[in-house]
Structure formats: structure tokens, C-alpha cells
Design a protein that fits this description.
The protein is α+β, with helices and mostly antiparallel strands. It is about 30% helix and about 25% strand. The longest helix has 15 residues. It is globular and about 55 Å long.
């Protein structure tokens, strides 16, 4: 379905297509993002070629890179809410070597605003998911 959308739009580059499955098991398009997308930021650590590099390759007419995974990965968004009580505990979140921190350089944290993300790598997606959520929880300063 995503390929057909890209072809109909004569699109070149990374295209995020968010799909939902209805209760009747129909597949519907919820969102089309004609750019690199937050849902694929984990490719920075987990893939031979990240979505960012693929975008450059596509628009420059270069051959696309390998989409092979190095590792299972999971990502957790960091919203401005994390800054409400105090500066997040970056050292605690990044204590595990399989967790990577990415901040987007936004100056003002606001509730609901995406300020960055954490990515965790592991042997399985479930394990990576557990690691990234544990790291995110460690960001919250303890009283």
C-alpha cells in the first residue's frame, strides 16, 4: 500500500505511511509523512543505512543503502513533560551501554513537545523495549 502511494505521488525520498487495522481487519492510511519520521529514528543505531542517509541518497540520485539491521531496537520519545520538576537525569538514563540519547536542540521544553528520544539495542525487540523504558524511567529525578 505504501509503495502504491509513493508511486501515485511520484515521490522520491523517505516516506512514512502510518497504517491502522480496523476492527473489521481493513487496513487504512492514517498519516502520510513525506520526510524522515520520528518513528524511524531508531535506524540511526540499528541499521546499516539510517533513514536520514537514505533520504540523502534518494534525493541525490545515489543508490539506496542496505536496510539490514545490526540489532533489534526500540525507541522512546522524550517529551517536554520530563523537564517539569527538574532537569532529567541524563547520566542515569545513559548508564547502560545499549542506550543512546538524542536531543533535538529545542530550547523550550513544553508538555507534549518532542524534545528527543532514547534508543536501546538488544537481542530481541521485547528486550530492547524493556531496556529503553527502564532508561526513560531513570531520567525522572527522584525526590
Amino acid at each position: 500500500m505504501a509503495s502504491r502511494i509513493a508511486e501515485k505521488l511520484d515521490y522520491v525520498g523517505v516516506l512514512g505511511v502510518e497504517l491502522f487495522v480496523t476492527n473489521e481487519q481493513d487496513l487504512i492510511v492514517n498519516e502520510i509523512a513525506p520526510r524522515v519520521h520520528n518513528s524511524g529514528h531508531w535506524t540511526i543505531e540499528a541499521c546499516v543505512t539510517s533513514q536520514f542517509e537514505q533520504q540523502l541518497r534518494a534525493v541525490c540520485g545515489l543508490p539506496l543503502g542496505s536496510t539490514e539491521f545490526f540489532s533489534a531496537a526500540a525507541m522512546a520519545n522524550l517529551l517536554g513533560d520530563l523537564w517539569q520538576r527538574a532537569e532529567p537525569n541524563w547520566a542515569a538514563a545513559c548508564a547502560a551501554p545499549d542506550v543512546k540519547l538524542h536531543l533535538y536542540g529545542k530550547i523550550e521544553p513544553r508538555p507534549g513537545r518532542k524534545m528527543g528520544h532514547l534508543t536501546a539495542l538488544a537481542g530481541t525487540a521485547n528486550e530492547a523495549g524493556r531496556h529503553v523504558m527502564e532508561a526513560r524511567e531513570r531520567l525522572i529525578p527522584k525526590d
